[in-house]
Model the fold of this input.
Amino acid sequence: MTEVRVLGVPLVAQAYDEAIAKLLDAVACGVQIRAHFCTVHSLVEAVDNEALRSAFESADMVCTDGVPLVWVSRRRGVGSAQRVCGPDVMLTLCDRGRASGLRHYFLGGRPGTPERLAAVLTGRFPGLLTAGTESPPFRTASEAEAQTIVDRINAAEPDVLWIGLGSPKQELWAADHAARLTARLILPVGAAFDFHSGLVRRAPVWMRQIGLEWLFRLAREPRRLLRRYVVTNARFIALLVREEWQRRLTRRGAGS
Done:
C-alpha cells in the first residue's frame, strides 16, 4: 500500500483485494477506519474546498475510485494500483462479511431508499445482517439532530456504516462525526445507494474498466451532470498537466 499525492490529496494506491483485506482486518482487530473513495470530481473539488481537502487529509484511507487516478498512480510508480470503487466495495463487504457476521447500517438516500437497498442486498446475500437504516433530512441538520442520528447508529451497534449523502456532504459528515461513532468502518459511498437499490442503472462493466462510467452517467442525466463532468474533467487535465510539469522541474533541479 503506497501513498501517492495527486493535486495535494493523499491517495492510497493499492490492489483491490489489498484494500478489502485492510478493511476486514480493521473490524477483526477492533480498529476504526474512515475510508473515502475519491473520484476525479471529488479530487478537483478538494482543490478549492478546504473542508473536503481536510477530510481527505485526516482519513485513514483515500482510495482511487476513478480510473484516471489509477492511471496517474501507475505512472508515478505504483504498478499494482487498481480501482477501489465504493459501490464495488459495498458488494464485496456485504458478501465476505457474512462469514464473520458483520452488521451493516445504511445512512442516506431519499426516504425509502436505504430500506430498499437493505432488502435488495439481503436478497442477494442471504444471511446479511442489517443493523439499521435511516434517511436523514436533506437540509443541514442541527448539532442536536446530528447527535441524535449518531446516538441511533451507535445504539444499533453496526460494524460497517455506509453513508450515501452525496459528495462532498457525505465526506464532511463522516469526518465531523467519526470520533463519536463506534462503527469500525465508516464508508461514504454516494451513488452506491441508488445503484444497488435499483433506482439508477449502473454503467456496464466494460465501460467502468476503461474509465467511461462518467460518459454513461452523462448520457442518462445530461442536464444534471453536463457541467460536472465536462468542466471538471477539463480542469482535472489542466491541473494534472501543471502538476506533472512542476514535478519534472523539481526532479531536474534535484539532479543538477
Notes: The chain has one domain: 2-247. The first strand starts at residue 2 and ends at 6. The radius of gyration is 18 Å.
